[in-house]
Specification:
Elements lengths: L6 H9 L3 H7 L2 E5 L5 E6 L6 H18 L10 E4 L2 H6 L3 E3 L6 E5 L19 E6 L6 H14 L3 E6 L7 H5 L10 H8 L5 H4 L4 E2 L7 E5 L9 H5 L6 E2 L5 E2 L1 H16 L3 E5 L6 H9 L4 E6 L3 H17 L2 H4 L3 E8 L4 H19 L28 E4 L10 H7 L2 H21 L1
Parallel strand pairs: 1-5, 2-3, 6-12, 6-13, 7-9, 7-12, 13-14, 14-15
Antiparallel strand pairs: 1-2, 4-5, 8-9, 10-11
Helix pairs in contact: 1-3, 5-16, 12-14
Amino acid sequence: MMTFDQILPTVQKALAPHKTLIARIQPVIVNRDLNGRVRLIVSDDVERDADTLAGCRSIAKELAEQLGAHAFPEEQMILFEDDMTTVLADAPGFALEGFEGVIVVDRLASEGRWASIAPISTGVPRVVFFSIKGGVGRSTAMAASAWSLAQSGKRVLVLDLDLESPGLSSGLLPAERRPTYGITDWLVEDLVDNGAAVFEDMMATSELAHDGEIYVVPAHGNDPGNYIAKLGRVWMPKINEQGKQEGWSQRLSRLLDQLEQRWQPDIILVDSRSGIDEVASSCVTDLGAGLVLMFAIDGEQTWSGYRILFEYWLKAGVVRDIRERLQLVGALIPETGAAEYFSSLKERSWDLFSDALYDEVPPGATIDELWNFDDSDEGAPHYPWPINWHRGFAALTSLHSRLEKIDPQQVESIYGSLIDGLNDFAGER
């Protein structure tokens, strides 16, 4: 029985005898629609050559027979397009392994674009705090990092993009200081070109900062209002002034650019939603972050989730565009057995990175010639920046009052590696 995971191997087998034809008519697009059904898209020049058309019809017939429910009927298996460039620009695509000039394009119900990596922003350094699963202390670590960076004199812009589970602002702002609006309000108002009405009132400064500043842009304002109704609209695309559709992720990127220009921070910290959904995709791949912190605990759910993501990047051919931005963070290192726990975390991390992201080292080559790291290299992206578990920092809701009284040395003992890494990153830009 044919299933979704068997589609591409079946397509590869069907196309293998026709490589000469494919080389002549490339690009050939293998289009998977929203329901997972496949058809081919080729240039309309193919229709004007009888022999070439016959060859394509033969491929279409075989695919229709082999793919079963995952194929369009044979007579509908080929689409002819006059502008292949436009087709390729409409959706994320990746090269079909073993075939030059064959691109797989996925039409997705969501706007998650894990295979499309935006260039690193040329402006203020941007850092995304991401985790494959929740409950790893990511938001708390971000709040503590913002506090420490501001203590050293930096102007820190903090965005809570965990829109479906907001709460970061409560760690940095007491209720009476929270702004009137938040990111969700702007995304909804922007749909009707009314974003300017809330823009100036969606940021508040935290009084926790001393030598620097902490600018907090929450998911919602001090009165969430009809938050669920608004949340159901933030993902909507809009038609921009040029008459082109602008996806929600593009709108979010535009907002971040405006916030950067308005508040002139030294560093931007973005709290991403956990998991592999479209919000996380936007944060990790679309906002131009130069550093993506991947929080991990030593558990099978963590490693299997990151492996799915890494192998997707590998298959999509974008590993080289993203891998140098990644850094693993070892979250919640336990007080008891810390050394053994960290050793296991490091080993599992190195296994994952070396399998999916690092270059293979062929016989006779040296690591210096390739993007590869020794398992014990403390400067490697797989080498975890440890965060020690601490009872007083276990609950984000108590963080604001705790940071008012905390000894900086205690923050250093818990988050020192993370804060040092952030300072180094900000200093490089």
